[in-house]
Design a protein that fits this description.
By secondary structure, the chain is α/β, with parallel strands linked by helices. It has a single domain, classed as 3-Layer(aba) Sandwich (Rossmann fold), CATH 3.40.50. The chain contains six helices and nine strands, in the order E-E-E-H-E-E-E-H-E-H-E-H-H-E-H. Strand 5 and strand 6 form a beta hairpin. Helix 1 crosses helix 2 and helix 3 packs parallel to helix 5.
Length: 191
């Protein structure tokens, strides 16, 4: 989805967030916002998406659901998978059972970096499902009136080739409007 015309908000460290009234890719204004679901990441695009989602939730007095998904076996989430023809998802090692706690802590740090603190003026729910991030986000944002907000920034070419883009998956598979917040560096990558 493209960003709509309207006021922009500058968050911590001069980041510019998306406008309050997003539009769909075909230009339709999204006006039915009953809940905002946002993918949480600690990179530039993730922080910009969190700032935009917070602004959108505040503008519509809607609850904000911050989702930091983690998946057992992914290297960034504490494991190492072995790709094998017979058993494609064998976990060789796992560093413990603290992934959900770590995901919650990362979400708190991301809120502080993006908007100064976890908002106290709107209901905020932090979810840390054990799932592929793209699948978790599209499953969580499935209610009438949901808007899904994700960031899209530059990524390592081979990593995107192997794992795909969360924002592109969400744009194609979500059952609600999707607002993709692209960072300046991500704009060159989105074409």
């Amino acid at each position: 989805m493209s960003q709509a015309a309207g006021p922009e908000v500058t968050g911590q460290e001069g980041r510019t967030a998306a406008p309050v009234m997003p539009r769909t890719a075909d230009g339709t204004l999204i006006t039915d916002v009953r809940r905002v679901v946002v993918g949480v990441d600690d990179n530039e695009a993730g922080l910009a998406a969190l700032a935009a989602a917070t602004q959108l939730a505040r503008a519509h007095a809607a609850p904000l659901v911050a989702v930091r998904a983690w998946e057992l076996g992914l290297p960034r989430h504490g494991g190492r998978r072995m790709r094998h023809l017979r058993h494609p998802h064998i976990v060789l090692s796992f560093s413990g059972c603290e992934q959900s706690v770590q995901a919650s802590m990362l979400a708190g740090r991301a809120f502080r970096a993006a908007v100064g603190a976890i908002p106290s003026d709107i209901p905020v729910i932090i979810e840390t499902p054990d799932d592929d991030p793209a699948l978790a986000l599209t499953a969580m944002a499935a209610r009438p009136g949901d808007v899904l907000v994700v960031g899209d920034g530059p990524g390592h070419y081979l990593r995107r080739l192997a794992h795909g883009s969360v924002s592109r998956f969400c744009e194609r598979h979500a059952h609600c409007p999707v607002l993709v917040v692209r960072t300046r560096a991500g704009l060159a990558d989105s074409g």
